[in-house]
């Protein structure tokens, strides 16, 4: 009897499926992992094999319900063997390498199993470039702009809950704030904005928080994310002076989150 124990990638996938706060860590773990595909190299041998640079490989495609092709890949060899009803050639290679050699294709992790994830070409491009599965649109204000700020009439509870969980596992996030913003010069209607106060490098935190916010903002509207700098005016001053943070880092924050005692 084959016992299918959870690999670190399997654990990351399960956590990400159950709670969006864990999705940035899943993508990071995936890019660090070895995965398994159905296929063979031109010099196929028995057992484990290292694919030489420039060596040609053939990768098996499956067909989705709509007739479009998709490349299946698996987190462990046991999971690959679980869905097969006959002996089939396979290869092991780094997930990052798989994404690089299959650019432009759709792939699906652990198809037909309880936990899986389909990856579309634009997601793969973002993963290879920024280690997250979506590219945020950057906006730079070239001149002083008047915007309208306030609190949302309908509180985005799920988004705030998941962002709180995410910030609680990022030690350099000090606080996070929520508001509605309307810039009449660029936007037809108001949208959510999240201000994040961060120690040190903030770029990757903004990218990862964007993944969590995008996956949990149930109305599908855009969410802006901005760095809050206590030494700056404008939006930073508004958040620090007029808005109570929905997340604040504290020594007991992580313990409170684990125990389910309100916000960290």
From TrEMBL:
SseB protein C-terminal domain sequence ranges: 142-249
A Pfam family assignment: SseB_C
InterPro entries from the UniProt entry: SseB_C (IPR027945), SseB_N (IPR009839)
Signal peptide: none
Domain SseB protein N-terminal: 10-126
Name of the featured protein: Enhanced serine sensitivity protein SseB
Species: Sapientia aquatica
Lineage: Bacteria, Pseudomonadati, Pseudomonadota, Betaproteobacteria, Burkholderiales
